[in-house]
Write a structure and sequence with these properties.
The chain is of the alpha+beta class. The protein folds into two domains: 2-53, no CATH class; 73-246, Glutaredoxin (3-Layer(aba) Sandwich). It has ten helices and five strands. The protein has a five-stranded mixed β-sheet with strand order 1-3-2-4-5. β2 (82-88), α3 (93-109) and β3 (113-119) form a beta-alpha-beta unit. It is globular, with a radius of gyration of 26 Å.
Protein backbone atom coordinates (compact mmCIF):
# COMPACT_ATOMS: atom_id res chain seq x y z
CA UNK A 1 0.00 0.00 0.00
CA UNK A 2 2.84 2.42 0.91
CA UNK A 3 4.54 1.64 -2.43
CA UNK A 4 1.36 2.42 -4.37
CA UNK A 5 0.99 5.70 -2.50
CA UNK A 6 4.59 6.62 -3.18
CA UNK A 7 4.22 5.85 -6.86
CA UNK A 8 1.04 7.91 -7.01
CA UNK A 9 2.76 10.82 -5.31
CA UNK A 10 5.65 10.62 -7.75
CA UNK A 11 3.28 10.65 -10.72
CA UNK A 12 1.44 13.66 -9.35
CA UNK A 13 4.75 15.49 -8.91
CA UNK A 14 5.63 14.81 -12.55
CA UNK A 15 2.25 16.06 -13.73
CA UNK A 16 2.58 19.21 -11.64
CA UNK A 17 6.07 19.83 -13.03
CA UNK A 18 4.84 19.46 -16.60
CA UNK A 19 2.02 21.94 -16.01
CA UNK A 20 4.39 24.35 -14.35
CA UNK A 21 6.81 24.11 -17.23
CA UNK A 22 3.95 24.77 -19.65
CA UNK A 23 3.11 27.98 -17.80
CA UNK A 24 6.63 29.27 -18.34
CA UNK A 25 6.65 28.90 -22.15
CA UNK A 26 8.11 31.88 -23.92
CA UNK A 27 5.81 34.07 -25.99
CA UNK A 28 7.29 32.84 -29.28
CA UNK A 29 6.85 29.24 -28.14
CA UNK A 30 3.15 29.84 -27.60
CA UNK A 31 2.80 31.43 -31.01
CA UNK A 32 4.62 28.51 -32.61
CA UNK A 33 2.33 26.01 -30.90
CA UNK A 34 -0.82 27.91 -31.90
CA UNK A 35 0.28 28.23 -35.53
CA UNK A 36 1.22 24.55 -35.63
CA UNK A 37 -2.15 23.47 -34.24
CA UNK A 38 -4.04 25.64 -36.72
CA UNK A 39 -2.01 24.31 -39.63
CA UNK A 40 -2.61 20.75 -38.45
CA UNK A 41 -6.37 21.30 -38.17
CA UNK A 42 -6.45 22.88 -41.63
CA UNK A 43 -4.52 20.04 -43.21
CA UNK A 44 -6.72 17.46 -41.51
CA UNK A 45 -9.90 19.20 -42.65
CA UNK A 46 -8.64 19.40 -46.22
CA UNK A 47 -7.67 15.72 -46.27
CA UNK A 48 -11.01 14.65 -44.80
CA UNK A 49 -13.03 16.94 -47.06
CA UNK A 50 -11.17 15.78 -50.16
CA UNK A 51 -11.70 12.14 -49.21
CA UNK A 52 -15.38 12.53 -48.29
CA UNK A 53 -16.25 14.41 -51.48
CA UNK A 54 -14.30 12.11 -53.78
CA UNK A 55 -16.80 10.08 -55.85
CA UNK A 56 -16.96 6.38 -55.12
CA UNK A 57 -15.52 4.14 -57.83
CA UNK A 58 -18.20 2.91 -60.20
CA UNK A 59 -18.84 -0.74 -60.88
CA UNK A 60 -19.46 -2.85 -63.92
CA UNK A 61 -21.54 -5.97 -64.55
CA UNK A 62 -19.30 -8.25 -66.59
CA UNK A 63 -19.09 -11.91 -67.52
CA UNK A 64 -17.03 -12.40 -64.37
CA UNK A 65 -19.68 -10.95 -62.08
CA UNK A 66 -21.08 -13.56 -59.70
CA UNK A 67 -24.67 -14.44 -60.68
CA UNK A 68 -26.18 -14.32 -57.20
CA UNK A 69 -28.88 -16.67 -55.97
CA UNK A 70 -30.70 -18.43 -58.81
CA UNK A 71 -33.49 -17.94 -59.42
CA UNK A 72 -33.40 -14.53 -57.75
CA UNK A 73 -36.18 -13.20 -55.56
CA UNK A 74 -38.06 -10.88 -57.89
CA UNK A 75 -41.42 -9.22 -58.48
CA UNK A 76 -42.86 -8.51 -61.90
CA UNK A 77 -42.48 -10.37 -65.17
CA UNK A 78 -39.26 -12.14 -66.07
CA UNK A 79 -39.59 -10.47 -69.49
CA UNK A 80 -40.08 -6.93 -68.13
CA UNK A 81 -38.02 -4.44 -70.15
CA UNK A 82 -36.66 -2.68 -67.07
CA UNK A 83 -34.98 -4.51 -64.17
CA UNK A 84 -34.32 -2.78 -60.88
CA UNK A 85 -31.83 -4.73 -58.79
CA UNK A 86 -31.57 -3.75 -55.14
CA UNK A 87 -28.78 -4.76 -52.75
CA UNK A 88 -30.28 -4.48 -49.31
CA UNK A 89 -29.94 -5.20 -45.59
CA UNK A 90 -33.16 -5.82 -43.64
CA UNK A 91 -31.77 -4.00 -40.59
CA UNK A 92 -30.59 -0.94 -42.52
CA UNK A 93 -32.89 2.09 -41.88
CA UNK A 94 -32.30 3.65 -45.34
CA UNK A 95 -33.22 0.27 -46.85
CA UNK A 96 -36.50 0.43 -44.94
CA UNK A 97 -37.11 3.87 -46.43
CA UNK A 98 -36.33 2.55 -49.91
CA UNK A 99 -38.81 -0.29 -49.33
CA UNK A 100 -41.56 2.30 -48.91
CA UNK A 101 -40.41 4.15 -52.02
CA UNK A 102 -40.28 1.04 -54.18
CA UNK A 103 -43.85 0.13 -53.30
CA UNK A 104 -44.92 3.34 -55.03
CA UNK A 105 -42.54 2.81 -57.95
CA UNK A 106 -43.90 -0.69 -58.53
CA UNK A 107 -47.44 0.66 -58.76
CA UNK A 108 -46.35 3.40 -61.16
CA UNK A 109 -44.66 1.09 -63.67
CA UNK A 110 -46.63 -2.14 -63.28
CA UNK A 111 -45.56 -4.90 -65.69
CA UNK A 112 -42.85 -2.75 -67.28
CA UNK A 113 -40.71 -3.14 -64.16
CA UNK A 114 -39.07 -6.18 -62.63
CA UNK A 115 -37.71 -5.72 -59.09
CA UNK A 116 -34.93 -8.03 -57.90
CA UNK A 117 -33.96 -8.21 -54.23
CA UNK A 118 -30.38 -9.13 -53.36
CA UNK A 119 -29.20 -9.87 -49.84
CA UNK A 120 -26.28 -7.76 -48.66
CA UNK A 121 -26.36 -7.99 -44.83
CA UNK A 122 -23.70 -5.90 -43.11
CA UNK A 123 -23.19 -7.83 -39.89
CA UNK A 124 -20.46 -5.50 -38.65
CA UNK A 125 -23.11 -2.78 -38.29
CA UNK A 126 -26.32 -4.77 -37.83
CA UNK A 127 -26.31 -7.65 -35.39
CA UNK A 128 -29.47 -9.34 -36.66
CA UNK A 129 -29.19 -8.60 -40.39
CA UNK A 130 -27.81 -11.99 -41.40
CA UNK A 131 -30.42 -13.83 -39.36
CA UNK A 132 -33.17 -11.75 -41.00
CA UNK A 133 -31.83 -12.58 -44.47
CA UNK A 134 -31.93 -16.29 -43.63
CA UNK A 135 -35.45 -15.92 -42.24
CA UNK A 136 -36.69 -14.43 -45.50
CA UNK A 137 -35.17 -17.34 -47.42
CA UNK A 138 -36.75 -19.83 -45.02
CA UNK A 139 -40.09 -18.20 -45.82
CA UNK A 140 -39.24 -18.32 -49.52
CA UNK A 141 -38.92 -22.10 -49.32
CA UNK A 142 -42.64 -22.08 -48.49
CA UNK A 143 -43.47 -19.55 -51.19
CA UNK A 144 -43.69 -16.47 -48.96
CA UNK A 145 -40.48 -14.51 -49.49
CA UNK A 146 -42.14 -11.18 -50.25
CA UNK A 147 -44.59 -11.44 -47.38
CA UNK A 148 -41.71 -11.99 -44.96
CA UNK A 149 -39.69 -9.27 -46.72
CA UNK A 150 -42.50 -6.80 -46.04
CA UNK A 151 -42.91 -7.94 -42.43
CA UNK A 152 -39.20 -7.52 -41.69
CA UNK A 153 -39.11 -3.97 -43.04
CA UNK A 154 -42.43 -2.91 -41.54
CA UNK A 155 -41.44 -4.14 -38.07
CA UNK A 156 -37.70 -3.39 -38.32
CA UNK A 157 -37.55 -1.33 -35.13
CA UNK A 158 -38.98 -4.20 -33.10
CA UNK A 159 -36.60 -7.00 -34.03
CA UNK A 160 -33.43 -5.10 -34.93
CA UNK A 161 -32.46 -4.46 -31.32
CA UNK A 162 -34.00 -7.57 -29.79
CA UNK A 163 -31.93 -10.07 -27.81
CA UNK A 164 -34.52 -12.77 -28.56
CA UNK A 165 -34.92 -12.22 -32.27
CA UNK A 166 -35.68 -15.86 -33.05
CA UNK A 167 -38.95 -15.75 -31.09
CA UNK A 168 -40.02 -12.69 -33.04
CA UNK A 169 -39.21 -14.36 -36.36
CA UNK A 170 -41.16 -17.45 -35.36
CA UNK A 171 -44.15 -15.24 -34.59
CA UNK A 172 -43.89 -13.76 -38.08
CA UNK A 173 -43.94 -17.29 -39.50
CA UNK A 174 -47.09 -18.07 -37.51
CA UNK A 175 -48.79 -14.88 -38.70
CA UNK A 176 -48.03 -15.90 -42.29
CA UNK A 177 -49.44 -19.38 -41.55
CA UNK A 178 -46.20 -21.12 -42.44
CA UNK A 179 -45.21 -24.59 -41.32
CA UNK A 180 -43.39 -23.37 -38.22
CA UNK A 181 -41.43 -26.56 -37.59
CA UNK A 182 -40.09 -26.55 -41.13
CA UNK A 183 -39.45 -22.81 -40.94
CA UNK A 184 -37.43 -23.28 -37.75
CA UNK A 185 -35.23 -25.87 -39.46
CA UNK A 186 -34.83 -23.85 -42.65
CA UNK A 187 -33.80 -20.67 -40.82
CA UNK A 188 -30.38 -22.23 -40.18
CA UNK A 189 -30.48 -24.74 -42.99
CA UNK A 190 -28.07 -24.97 -45.92
CA UNK A 191 -30.46 -23.72 -48.61
CA UNK A 192 -31.07 -20.37 -46.94
CA UNK A 193 -27.38 -19.93 -46.21
CA UNK A 194 -26.36 -20.74 -49.78
CA UNK A 195 -28.76 -18.21 -51.29
CA UNK A 196 -27.79 -15.40 -48.91
CA UNK A 197 -24.10 -16.11 -49.51
CA UNK A 198 -24.61 -16.16 -53.29
CA UNK A 199 -26.25 -12.73 -53.28
CA UNK A 200 -23.49 -11.36 -51.09
CA UNK A 201 -20.87 -12.75 -53.45
CA UNK A 202 -22.58 -11.03 -56.36
CA UNK A 203 -22.50 -7.74 -54.49
CA UNK A 204 -18.84 -8.17 -53.60
CA UNK A 205 -17.93 -9.05 -57.19
CA UNK A 206 -19.64 -5.84 -58.35
CA UNK A 207 -17.92 -3.74 -55.71
CA UNK A 208 -21.15 -2.74 -53.99
CA UNK A 209 -20.04 -0.24 -51.32
CA UNK A 210 -23.03 -0.49 -48.99
CA UNK A 211 -26.80 -0.54 -48.72
CA UNK A 212 -29.04 0.31 -50.32
CA UNK A 213 -27.41 0.10 -53.74
CA UNK A 214 -29.72 0.20 -56.75
CA UNK A 215 -28.99 -0.88 -60.32
CA UNK A 216 -31.34 -0.36 -63.25
CA UNK A 217 -30.58 -2.55 -66.25
CA UNK A 218 -27.05 -2.95 -64.85
CA UNK A 219 -26.62 0.82 -64.50
CA UNK A 220 -26.08 2.27 -61.06
CA UNK A 221 -28.38 4.87 -59.61
CA UNK A 222 -26.09 7.28 -57.69
CA UNK A 223 -26.68 7.16 -53.91
CA UNK A 224 -27.91 10.76 -53.89
CA UNK A 225 -30.51 9.84 -56.53
CA UNK A 226 -31.96 6.84 -54.69
CA UNK A 227 -35.22 8.69 -54.08
CA UNK A 228 -38.69 8.45 -55.58
CA UNK A 229 -37.88 11.20 -58.09
CA UNK A 230 -34.37 9.95 -58.84
CA UNK A 231 -35.44 6.36 -59.49
CA UNK A 232 -38.31 7.61 -61.65
CA UNK A 233 -35.88 9.64 -63.73
CA UNK A 234 -33.55 6.68 -64.18
CA UNK A 235 -36.34 4.27 -65.16
CA UNK A 236 -37.95 6.72 -67.57
CA UNK A 237 -34.73 6.86 -69.56
CA UNK A 238 -34.86 3.08 -69.95
CA UNK A 239 -38.61 2.67 -70.49
CA UNK A 240 -39.95 0.96 -73.64
CA UNK A 241 -39.40 3.07 -76.72
CA UNK A 242 -36.32 4.86 -75.36
CA UNK A 243 -32.75 4.19 -76.40
CA UNK A 244 -30.62 2.88 -73.55
CA UNK A 245 -27.72 4.95 -74.87
CA UNK A 246 -29.63 8.16 -74.05
CA UNK A 247 -28.98 7.45 -70.36
CA UNK A 248 -25.52 8.99 -70.53
CA UNK A 249 -22.93 9.43 -67.82
CA UNK A 250 -23.86 13.07 -67.27
CA UNK A 251 -27.54 12.44 -66.57
CA UNK A 252 -28.93 13.12 -63.13
CA UNK A 253 -30.93 9.91 -62.94
CA UNK A 254 -28.45 7.19 -63.87
CA UNK A 255 -24.88 6.49 -64.86
CA UNK A 256 -23.00 3.65 -66.44
CA UNK A 257 -21.13 1.17 -64.27
CA UNK A 258 -17.38 0.87 -64.55
CA UNK A 259 -14.78 -1.26 -62.85
CA UNK A 260 -13.47 -0.01 -59.50
CA UNK A 261 -9.97 1.41 -59.73
Amino acid sequence: MRREQAQTSSKMDNISNNCANGNRLKKWDLQTVIVGVLLGIGAGWFAFHSKSTRPLPLIEVTSRTAPGAQPPNFKGLASSPVTLEEFSDFECPPCRDLYQTLKKIEVDYGPRLKVVFRHFPISSLHQNALAAARVSEAAALQGHFWEMHDELFEDQRTWSSSSDVQSIFLNYARSLQLDVDRFRRDMDGPQANIRVRADRQRGNSLGVPGTPTVLINDRQVPPEAVTYEGIHAAIDKLAPGSDVSTCDDNSDGCRSLKSPS
